Amino acid sequence: MTETDSIAYDVVVLGAGPVGENIADRTRAAGLSTAVVESELVGGECSYWACMPSKALLRPGLAQADARRLPGLAQAVQGPLDAAAVLARRNGFTGNWNDDGQIQWLDGIGVDFYRGHGRLAGPKKVEVTGSDGERHVLTAGHAVAVSTGSRAVLPDLPGLADIKPWTSREATSAQTVPGRLIVIGGGVVATEMATAWHALGSKVTLLVRGKGLLNRMEPFAGEMVAAALTEAGVDVRTGTSVTSVTRENGTIVAVTDNGDRIEADEILFATGRAPRTDDIGLDTIGLEPGSWLEVDDSLRVTGSDWLYAVGDVNHRALLTHQGKYQARIAGAAIAARASGVSLLDSDPWSAHAATADHSAVPQVVFTDPEAAAVGLSLAEAEQAGHRVRAVDYDLGSVAGASLYGDDYRGRARMVVDLEREILLGVTFVGPGVGELIHSATIAVAGQVPISRLWHAVPSYPTISEVWLRLLESYRDN
């Protein structure tokens, strides 16, 4: 093993996914010398095993489903998808799992990159060990930012490791279509991958331990997605747990708690995430290895004046777009403190406070139908003690929805705070609603009064006209 002299930077970033890249971009733009450490691919989970490849897998099937709802076009798209072409295009989205372009981008903005395993080695110090054994010691004058993300969690089932199950990584990077696929879970990864692989030709069985799908959204979202998956041919079984999994002569056999025996070629466990903090030296600064890191609204770790935890590792919102939002906040806070500002702007809507992570987190689930939500559900709002009213509307009754097909099925809900007459949450379910959610995010994050929303006129004929119908329903009932 060789060792270089200690190298000084203003900021050291552990993890080069979208979050780490954005922290580096903001601190470097502020004139701070910055180094980024990554043991895998620059671009992280989102670029290679999550957001981008999963959406590349999903889009052809969703486009085909949209086309089949349109008379005159439906007859032209009745054949199966060209799975090889879809997988090849997906590979292109990941750059064939090559990060040369991402490294060039870091170099272009003046950030030094270290490939290797990075560990904290006491306050403001990071040790990097490369695959060749070369060791670097980096010191941070102002801040170390941990943005190492999260990993998939597998259940404690005997022999599970021996059958080599899929996690989200294998599900988004597989190079062949399994004839039969079991998906375990009822969340975003489970529903999206069931949608994608079914469209590509797999016979999919979806096993859900709970009562329904997408339990962090309004109940009707999961109900509508489950109904559509079932109608499409996915075998959806709720209230079902797997008690054992084996591989017999190449075939996976899963046994459920009610004694059912299900055979498949592959099995995907989409059963939760854990922070990638187990081997990054947290013990050297008095923190628990493998733990989520608690932070304030400037993303600084509780009890520290130099350590930041940004993205999945702080467990505030495990979403790429929220992690990038946090990165912009953290970068601004680090730069402000480095310039001598000891007390940051107390305004919760300042550039130094991650306010939206408390009240206006948006998410889109790219199933068919899509499900999109921002803010609080009705149950969450009531549990938080707000006096609220839910206003629902059938999206299929909006004029613009008919342009998507003759049998458009969807639903919209806004949760109104009756004291302040602002929106606490909005949920849409239906084809194409992912493009609606940003308008809802602006309304929720900006706390736009309903009296002002009346004057935001939706274009006709678009499904955005649902805003008018929701407001009319609130006024008239």
Overall description:
The chain folds into three domains: 7-43 and 99-151 and 275-356, FAD/NAD(P)-binding domain (3-Layer(bba) Sandwich), CATH 3.50.50; 153-271, FAD/NAD(P)-binding domain (3-Layer(bba) Sandwich), CATH 3.50.50.60; 369-476, Enolase-like, domain 1 (2-Layer Sandwich). Helices cover 30% and strands 23% of the residues. It contains 14 helices and 21 strands. The strands form five sheets. Strands 1, 2, 3, 4, 5, 6 and 16 form a seven-stranded mixed beta sheet that branches. Strands 17-18-21-20-19 form a five-stranded antiparallel beta sheet, sandwiched between helices. The longest helix has 19 residues, at 320-338. The protein is globular, with a radius of gyration of 24 Å.
Please summarize what this structure is.
This protein has about 475 residues and is α/β, with parallel strands linked by helices. The protein has 14 helices and 21 strands.
